[in-house]
Amino acid sequence: MQYRTLGHSGLKLSVIGLGSWLTFGNTVEREATRACVLEAWEHGVNFIDTANVYAKGAAEEALSPVLRELNRDELVLATKVYFPMGDGVNERGLSRKHIRAQIERSLRRLDVEYVDLYQCHRYDLATPLEETCEAMNDLVRRGLALYWGVSEWTADQIVAAVNLCRARGWAVPISNQPQYSALWRRVEARVLPACEQYGLGNVVWSPIAMGILSGKYTDAARPPAGTRAAGPYREMMEDYFTQPVLDAVQRLKPIADRLGITLVQLALGWVLQQPAVTSAIVGASNPKHVNENVAAGDVVLDRATVDEINAILEPVTPFEPYLA
């Protein structure tokens, strides 16, 4: 396993991180959760990412028993705050009140004294940025979070937060968690350059494009039973779940075969060739998935291979760089 430093900090993360969105506490049972986490840990994965909103807290609760089996000094544990966690008017967003309440509840569910990385899951237009940044700084000063970061913020929002924190002498955000894959490249235009300039590392989600880049889908009209595209999450894939995209993914197979790797590993290797990326977060429902994913940590793609992949995918992807 390879490791990279997260932004302008001394924190080192495995280039493959283990996520829990739609899996742990949801579609994956407790024993399978334990097996996946221990398998990842055995292969050198030190970064585990979750969020309070994942299965309404159940993802954090599902992780807590197996976290006790890991070396806490080596573990980099991340969770998030923003989305509604109840019906009350203050049970959402990035106000000081909601942040304080949710960090305490996340710590109880995870059964830890602190998280290594606490992330603002989205930008809150209803709360002054100053209030959010000061609240995150307070958590760092209290030792409840060692670092803080953001997720799906625009370049302008990231720059504003860093400059505000620097001016006030507060802990600056060191991470960003955007969606990023060879099929979803909107952050390349402004977000990734801003992160590099202002010292944030990127821990990206959906690097396999919700499974599309695995090559398991071949017919957009008839996805295999039991897959994400055949269930209620299909609407989340609509941007790129089209026949031209699926056909293009199949044309990547000769490249993967030539390199002696799987399409999943090719997709992860593509993401990790981007210097602004610190870690690619992947999900898993069994140890077999973990093994395939972690092997991608050693994949190195040369420029010619990256260009070959891009030439196949760019004509069919919803790549809109101006949006980021």
Keywords:
TIM Barrel, globular, 10 strands, 324 residues, alpha/beta
Radius of gyration: 19 Å
CA-CA gap between termini? 31 Å
**What is the 3D form?**
globular
The CATH architecture category equals Alpha-Beta Barrel
* Biggest pleated-sheet summary: 8 strands, parallel
| Average of the residue pLDDT scores | 94
Number of helices: 11
Oligomer: single chain
CATH topology: TIM Barrel
Instruction: Name the CATH superfamily classification.
Output: NADP-dependent oxidoreductase domain
Strand residues, percent:
5-15%
The CATH class is Alpha Beta
Order of helices and strands: EEEHEHEHEHEHEHEHHHEHH
User: Residue ranges: pLDDT <50 for 5 or more in a row?
Assistant: none
Number of domains as seen in the coordinates: 1
Strand order of the largest sheet: 3-10-9-8-7-6-5-4
The helix/strand class is alpha/beta
Helix coverage percent of residues? 25-40%
The total count of strands amounts to 10
Structural features, described:
The protein has 324 residues and is of the alpha/beta class. It has one domain: NADP-dependent oxidoreductase domain (TIM Barrel, Alpha-Beta Barrel). The chain is globular.
How are the SSEs placed, and which strands pair?
Layout: E1 3-5, E2 12-14, E3 16-18, H1 30-42, E4 47-49, H2 58-67, E5 76-81, H3 96-110, E6 115-120, H4 129-142, E7 145-150, H5 155-168, E8 175-176, H6 191-198, E9 201-204, H7 243-250, H8 253-259, H9 263-272, E10 277-282, H10 287-294, H11 303-313
Helix pairs in contact: 1-2, 1-10, 3-4, 4-5, 5-6
